[in-house]
Amino acid sequence: MASLNVGNLGEFLREQRRSAQLSLRQLADAAGVSNPYLSQIERGLRKPSADILQQLAKALRISAETLYVQAGILDEREPDAAGTRSAILADPSLDERQKQVLIQIYESFRKENGLDADAPAPAAGPGPGENGDTGDAASAPTS
Fold it and tell me: 55: closest CA among 22, 23, 33?
């Protein structure tokens, strides 16, 4: 585990708080921490726990992972395209057509931004009009 870089964390928190147009007191109340404690965190005098960082992230409506990276608890990582595709494919509230459309849009944005232009499409079953019947009911179209 990396050491806490509290100064940068405090500056980052202050910037996030200001962009959210919250006073120090408002953020402290929303996160369930004391006003003086939050002030000390922002000034780099205190090292908040992972739980406090999670509460602050929730109050700021940002990911806790973002604050963990700023605090040096987690190493920053590259966005995981495979993870995004897997999350889309695993979502039970979407039908197969919706999943494929979302993945196509996602991949087109990545290609437009010069990322993963040659990445293979995920194996999510046959597309419309393809004969890929494996006998698996889970891959059968839902409509």
Answer: 33
How many Cβ atoms are within 10 Å of 18's Cβ, its own excluded?
A: 12
- Cβ within 8 Å of residue 37, ≥6 positions away: 28, 46
Q: Are 9 and 78 in contact (CB under 8 A)?
A: no
C-alpha closest to that of 99 among 112, 83, 86, 111: 86
Tell me the pLDDT band of 138, cut-offs 50, 70 and 90. Answer: very low
From CA 14, how far away is CA 40, in angstroms rounded? 11
Q: How many CB atoms lie within 10 A of CB 27?
A: 22
Q: What is the pTM of this model?
A: 0.53
Encoded tokens for 5: 């870089």
